Amino acid sequence: MKVRGIVLACGNTQSPAVTDGDRFEVRRVASRPGRDEVDPVLAELGDGRLVVHGTDADLNAVALRLLRAERLAEVPVGYVPVDRRSAVAELWGLPTDPGRALDLALSGDADRVSLVRDDVGGVLVGRGSLGPVRGVGYGDDTVVLRGQASRIEVTPDPGGGPGLLVHVISKRLLGRRVTTTPARAFQLGCLPVEVTSDGVPHPRPMGKWTWYRHTEDLRLVRGVQ
Q1: Phi, psi of 2, rounded to the nearest 5 degrees
Q2: Running DSSP on this structure, what letter comes out for residue 204?
Q3: Are 111 and 220 in contact (CB under 8 A)?
Q4: Helix count and strand count (H, E) for the chain
Q5: N or C: which terminus of the chain has fewer CB atoms within 10 Å of its end residue's CB?
Q6: Residue 182: beta bridge partners?
Q7: Which residues contact 137 (CB under 8 A, 6 or more apart)?
């Protein structure tokens, strides 16, 4: 029986309830799996589907390997989030109930969605954040920050815009103010700031940072079953 795809059960997550009738193989891999674990799976996959059962950080790591292997255009990627607070699930309208999420990941249609890259070799599939921040930031040619903000969040644009959305969040006496700017690229020069991509902190504070839309999209499974 030909296998339709491979499910990567990442980290200590419980193996998903895949049956023989689903025609998917389950492979256990580490959290945030790297080249030595993902690339052999890609070599076996052929024209099959890859399903990531794990966290946003795990999906991020797999998307990076697809980018490096130049397989973004070929491989449909399903996602079964283990965290109901998943920014990827919220952004792209994916179910967080394990059963529904697995059903969709195994049999839903794949859509092309924006994949965001950074200038230090990483990618962003859900939410990136910086802050508190003081500096100057641009969304394409638009100044989105000149001064300070409590936080800046960047996500791929789910609305089919130029590529990403830049949310500048500032505290006020009564709540907070959020300014959102669509752009193809976001560039920031600032005092050293903590950067987090899909829940993973960058190893050191950064004085400049860029997120921009990649030339190829991620084929994320999120359509009807």
Answers
A1: -70, 135
A2: S
A3: yes
A4: 4, 18
A5: N
A6: 165
A7: 143, 144, 145, 146, 152, 166, 168, 186, 187, 188, 189, 190
Copy the structure tokens of residue 24: 């998917």
Find, among 211, 55, 25, the residue nearest to 123 by Cα: 211
Give SS3 for 66.
helix
For residue 3, what pLDDT band results from cuts at 50, 70 and 90? low
pLDDT one-digit tens code per residue, 44-102:
998 999 999 999 999 999 999 999 999 999 999 999 999 999 999 999 999 999 999 99
Residues contacting 36, CB < 8 A, separation 6+: none
Q: Which tokens in the block code for residue 223?
A: 């359509």
Nearest to 187 by CA among 159, 173, 206, 160: 206
